[in-house]
Amino acid sequence: MQLGVVGLGRMGGNIARRLARAGHSCVVWDRSTSAVGELAGEGMAGAADLADLVSKLAAPRAVWVMLPAGAPTEETVNALAGLMSPGDIIIDGGNTFYKDDIRRAETLEPQGIHYVDVGTSGGVWGLERGYCMMIGGTKEAVDHLDPILAALAPGKGNIPLTPGREGRDPRAEQGYIHAGPAGAGHFVKMIHNGIEYGLMQAYAEGFEILKNKDSTALPANERYTLNMPDIAEVWRRGSVVSSWLLDLTSIALAKDEQLSAFPGEVADSGEGRWTVMAAVEEAVSAEVLTAALYTRFRSRQDHTFGEKMLSAMRFQFGGHTEFKMDK
Amino acid sequence: MQLGVVGLGRMGGNIARRLARAGHSCVVWDRSTSAVGELAGEGMAGAADLADLVSKLAAPRAVWVMLPAGAPTEETVNALAGLMSPGDIIIDGGNTFYKDDIRRAETLEPQGIHYVDVGTSGGVWGLERGYCMMIGGTKEAVDHLDPILAALAPGKGNIPLTPGREGRDPRAEQGYIHAGPAGAGHFVKMIHNGIEYGLMQAYAEGFEILKNKDSTALPANERYTLNMPDIAEVWRRGSVVSSWLLDLTSIALAKDEQLSAFPGEVADSGEGRWTVMAAVEEAVSAEVLTAALYTRFRSRQDHTFGEKMLSAMRFQFGGHTEFKMDK
Amino acid sequence: MQLGVVGLGRMGGNIARRLARAGHSCVVWDRSTSAVGELAGEGMAGAADLADLVSKLAAPRAVWVMLPAGAPTEETVNALAGLMSPGDIIIDGGNTFYKDDIRRAETLEPQGIHYVDVGTSGGVWGLERGYCMMIGGTKEAVDHLDPILAALAPGKGNIPLTPGREGRDPRAEQGYIHAGPAGAGHFVKMIHNGIEYGLMQAYAEGFEILKNKDSTALPANERYTLNMPDIAEVWRRGSVVSSWLLDLTSIALAKDEQLSAFPGEVADSGEGRWTVMAAVEEAVSAEVLTAALYTRFRSRQDHTFGEKMLSAMRFQFGGHTEFKMDK
Amino acid sequence: MQLGVVGLGRMGGNIARRLARAGHSCVVWDRSTSAVGELAGEGMAGAADLADLVSKLAAPRAVWVMLPAGAPTEETVNALAGLMSPGDIIIDGGNTFYKDDIRRAETLEPQGIHYVDVGTSGGVWGLERGYCMMIGGTKEAVDHLDPILAALAPGKGNIPLTPGREGRDPRAEQGYIHAGPAGAGHFVKMIHNGIEYGLMQAYAEGFEILKNKDSTALPANERYTLNMPDIAEVWRRGSVVSSWLLDLTSIALAKDEQLSAFPGEVADSGEGRWTVMAAVEEAVSAEVLTAALYTRFRSRQDHTFGEKMLSAMRFQFGGHTEFKMDK
C-alpha cells in the first residue's frame, strides 16, 4: 500500500527503505532536499513539500511522521492536519510524550482525521532486524495500516515461540501490537525505554564491580584481574542474564576492553524522565528505573553542589578537610 | 573422561546426565540412596559412600561437589580431602561464597590437591540448554577438566558470533571461561546473579507501571488497560529489551496474566547480598543491584518498624493519623 | 494591621489566633459557620461570606487563604479576585504547587492584584512555636505584609545565632524569608518537605536496623535487644543526628516503644512527588529524596504486581516456588 | 576518679581535658611525646609508655583507648591486656567495628579483664558540648565507670525534656546509655553514623535542587535564583527540618554561599559501610542509608567504567555518540 513518510533521518529513511523492499509504495519528504534525493535515487517518489506529498497520496491517506519529538513533530502534525481530509491517518512514529498524543487525537477527532502513535524500537538495526512497534489509536486506523505495520515488524524469525499463547493476538509474535487508544503506543514504548535504562544500569554496575576487583584497596589474596570481554561473551550462552543488550556489550568489549573511546558522560532522553514521572503519578516504587536515570544525570556532572555541601558539613562537625583526601 | 559427582539434586543429577550423554563416565553418590539408585538405573556407577566413590576413580581423580553452600559443601570438601591424593581435583560447583573458595584452596594447596570452583548458571534448563560456567582454579587443573567442561557447556548453538573476538579465548564462545585463580569462578557467578536481580527488578518495575496505568487515581483520559502478555511477547522481537528473562516472563504471562499463583514474597539467595557487600568493599556505587535486593527484603515483610516510625513522626508534627488514610 | 483569613481549619484558625495575640485584627471566614463562630467567640470579626469579608477590610486589603491545595484554593482565589481592587493582596498559605502560583500571579497582575504565596511549616506546633515561612511575590506586597509575617514567625527565640550572617537578610533569623517572585515561596517549602521525607526515612531505616538486631537470623553472639526509646533520647544530646524530628521520635517512642498504634501505611502529600519531578526536570540525582517517597508508596501496598513477576521469573528459570518459602 | 587515656589526638586530648575540668585525674600517654607534654603542661600526669601508664593507676584500673580503629587499637588493647589484672577495664572509645569488640571481650573475659566499647559522638565540639556516648559491656564495668561517663556526657543542658520518660533510664537524658553487652555501644554508634549519612544526603539533595532552580534548561518563568544561606537559616526556626546538621550548614553557607572551598570529593568512614552490611545481614531495606553511602563513592570518581559501558551500549544500539553530547 501507499505511505507518505516525513522525516528522512536514520529512522525515517530506513523505515521507507524497509517498506519499499516489501513492495510498498512510499512518497517521501524531508526539509533536506539531499535526503529526499537519496531516497528518490532508490526509486521512491520524492515530494517538494508537505502539500505535494499529500497530493501524491490517494485517499484515505496515511502519512508517517518520523521527526524529533516536540516542536518539529507538533508543527508537522498541525500542517498535515490542514492538508488532509476526513478518513486520513497521521502517524507519529517518533518519541512523543504520550499526553501530547492524547491531546492531538482529541483535537483531530472532530476533523475526522485519525491519529496513530507508534512507539518504535530497533534503532540502527531496524532496517535489517525489523522494528518492534507499540501502537496507539483507533481500531479502524490501526487495522487499515496493518500491511505497513506487518512489513516493518521483525516477524517471527528464528525466535522460539512462547508456549501457551494460543488464542492471544498473533501480531505480538510478529513484533507489533495495538496497545490501546491514542497515546498507548508511546506510553508502552516509554516504559520500554525506562526498562532499557534499568537493564543497562544493572549490567554497568555488575561489570564495574568485576572491573574494580583488582583494586589495591582490597586484600591481596582477594584481588582478581578479570577479563571483561570473555565474561560478557560467556554469559551470552546459557546464562540467566543473556540478552540483546549483553550481545551488544560483548561486541563493544571485544573491540576495546577498556572502552576508552567513551568518555562516560551518558545522555538521557525524555522517555527515562517520563517513566519516572509516570511511576510517581501511579505511586509505583520504581527504585531501579529511577536510579538508572539518576546515574546518567550524575555522569554528566563534575562535582555537584550537594557534594560540596556534604564536605562542608563534615568540616563543620568533625574538622574533616577533604582537600588532602586520598581517593 | 571419568568424574565423581557428589550431590544428586536437580543440578547435580542433570550434570551427571549431560556428561553421560556426552560419553563421559560418572561415579555418583548422594546421601539419598534413591537418588543414587535413579542414576544407577540410567547406567552410571553408584557409590556406597564417599570413600567408595573415591576408590572407584582412577588418579588423578576429579570429584564434582554439587551441594548447598555452607556446611554441606564444607564438610564434603573436607572429607574428600582426607580421601584423595596429590594431583587430585575437588570441584565445587555450588553457590559457595568466593572467600571460602580462597580459604579452601589455600588449605588444600600444601596437600597437592587442586581446588576448582565452578559458578554454574542454567537452572532447570541446563540439561538441555547446557550450563554456562565461570571457573576459578589453577590453569593445570582447569585444563585437565576441559573435556568435562566442554561437554557441560552449551556450545555455540545458533547464537550469532560476536564480531571482533578473533584471538580471544574460544572457550567463552562455547559457554565457559577460566576466570582466574580459586574463587574467581564463584565471584564472577556471584556478580552474574547480582546483575540478574537488577534485570529482573527493571522488568518488574516497568510492568508494574504498565499494569497500574488503569488506576482510578489517574485522570480518566490518561488511563489505559494494557495487555501484559502481548507487551512481553512483542518486546521479544526486535526491541532493545529482549532477553532470556523476558522470554520467561512472556511464558509466565501467557499462562496467567494476573500471575495470581505467586504470592509476591520473593526470596533472595546469598549471591545478591554478597554482590552488595563486594560493591561496598570496592566503593562501587551499585544503586540498582542494591535496590533490587532491598525490594526483595521488603516484599517479605508486612509492615516494617521503620514505616511505623514514619507514621509516628507524622502524627507528632502534623497531627496526621494514618488510621483512616485512604490508600 | 488588618488581615482577612479564609479557611479556619487547624492551620488557618491558629494563624488567626497567633495574629490576634500579637495585636493584629483578623476578619475570618470559613464555609463552616461553627468554625467562624469559634473564632468570633475569641474576639475576631466573623464574616458571612467572602464578599462580606472583603467589605470588612480597608484598602489595600490582604486576605490569607488557608485551604487545601487544588480546587478549594483555586476557586477561592478566583472569587476573591472578582471582589478585590488594584493594590489588594491575595495570600495563598496552603500547599499549592508552585507552577499554579506562577500562573495565578500572571493572571492577576493585569488586574493590579498582588499574589503572594507563603509556604508555611510548623504544623500543630505553630501556634506556640511560630510558623517558619518561605514567601514568594513582589517586593512591594511582601514588604507591606511584614507586620503580619513577623508576628507569625517564630522569632529568634533561644536558638543560637549563626556566626557570619552580618549583612544578610535579618528576616531569616526571625523565621521568614522573601524567597523570590511568585511561586518561589511554595517552591522552597516544597523542597523543605522533600528534605523532610529524606530525613524521616534516614531515621526510620536506622531504627529498623537497631530494632532487628535481635533477629534469630543472626549469629547468637551478634544479637542485641536494643532500647529504642533510650537510643532516641540519648542522640538528642550532643550527637550529630540531633534534630526536631528526633525530638518527636523520642516522644513517640517514650510513649510506646513498639509504636503499635501505627499500622505502618504512610501517606504522602503532593510536595514529596513534586520534589522528585523538580529533580528530574533539573537533572539532579535525588536518590535519597526519591527513595524516601517510594518507600511510602510501597508501605501502602500489600504485594505488588512487580513482586509477583519476580517470583514468576524465578519459577521459570530455577523452578523456585515461593510458596513454601520461609521468611 | 582515675582514668588512663591512650591516644591524645583531637578526640583523646579533649576527653582528658573535659575529665580534668570535672575534677577527675587522668594519666595520659601517646606515642607523640609532644602530645603527652602538652597535656602534662595542663596538669595531667604523663606516662613514658603503656607500662608506665598502667603502673601509675590504682586497681581496679580503667584505661580509655582513643586511637584509629584497626591495627592501632588492636595492638594497644592487646598490649594493655598483657599489663593489666583481673577486674581492670579496657575502654575502646574509637570507631571499632562491633564484631571486633565481641571478639575482644570474649578473648579478655577468661583473664577477668572487662572490655567496654564506647561509641562517641561529638567531634570537634565535644570539649564544650560534651560527648554523646553509647556504651557496650558488662553492667559491672559500665556502672564502675559512671563518674567518668557522666562527666564526659553533655548533661541535660537547655534541651527540653521528653514527656513520658518517667521510669526510663535517666542516663539517656544526660547523654549516655548502656546499650548492651560488648559491641552494642559501637553498633549503636555505627547506626548513628549511618543515619548521619542519610540526613546529610537529604539536605544535600534538597539544596542542590534549590541551587539548580536557576538552570537555563528550565522555562524562563519557572527559574528562581534562590538564596542558599537565607534558606538554611530560616529553616532553623520553626520548620520540620531543623537540626544540628542544619545549624552547621547555615554556618557554612553564611561564610561562603558557593562553598567553593570544598572540592566535592566526600570521604566515607567504616561506619557507613558497616551500616549497609548490617542492613543486608538483617534483610532491612535501607535504601536511603545506602544511597547516601553510594553518593560518596561516586563523588570520588571521575568517570566510572559502568558509565563508559552505558555509552558503549547506546552507541551499539542507537548509534548514539556521546562525544559531542552537550551537557
Q: What general form of chain A does the structure show?
A: globular
- The strand order across the widest sheet of chain A is 3-2-1-4-5-6-7-8
Mean pLDDT, all residues of chain A: 95
User: Radius of gyration of chain A, rounded?
Assistant: 24 Å
The helix tally of chain A amounts to 15
Biggest β-sheet strands, sense, barrel of chain A: 8 strands, mixed
Secondary structure layout:
The structure is a homotetramer of 327-residue chains.
Chain A: E1 2-6, H1 10-21, E2 25-29, H2 33-41, E3 45-46, H3 50-55, E4 62-65, H4 71-83, E5 89-92, H5 98-108, E6 114-121, H6 126-129, E7 132-136, H7 139-144, H8 146-152, H9 171-174, E8 176-180, H10 184-211, H11 228-235, H12 244-255, H13 270-282, H14 287-299, H15 305-318
Parallel strand pairs in A: 1-2, 1-4, 2-3, 4-5, 5-6, 7-8
Antiparallel strand pairs in A: 6-7
Helix pairs in contact in A: 10-13, 10-14, 11-12
Can you describe what's shown?
Chains A, B, C, D: Pathway: Carbohydrate degradation; pentose phosphate pathway. Chains A, B, C, D: Keywords: Gluconate utilization, Oxidoreductase. 4 copies of one chain form a homotetramer. Helices cover 49% and strands 12% of the residues of chain A. Chain A has 327 residues and is of the alpha/beta class. An 8-stranded mixed sheet of chain A has the order 3-2-1-4-5-6-7-8, sandwiched between helices. In chain A, helix 10 (184-211) crosses helix 13 (270-282), helix 10 (184-211) packs across helix 14 (287-299) and helix 11 runs antiparallel to helix 12. The longest helix of chain A is centred in the middle third of the chain and has 28 residues, at 184-211. The relative contact order of chain A is 0.08. The model of chain A is unreliable at 323-327 (pLDDT under 50). Chains in contact: A-B, A-C, A-D, B-C, B-D, C-D. Chains A and D meet through helix 10, helix 12, helix 14 and helix 15 of A and helix 10, helix 12, helix 14 and helix 15 of D.
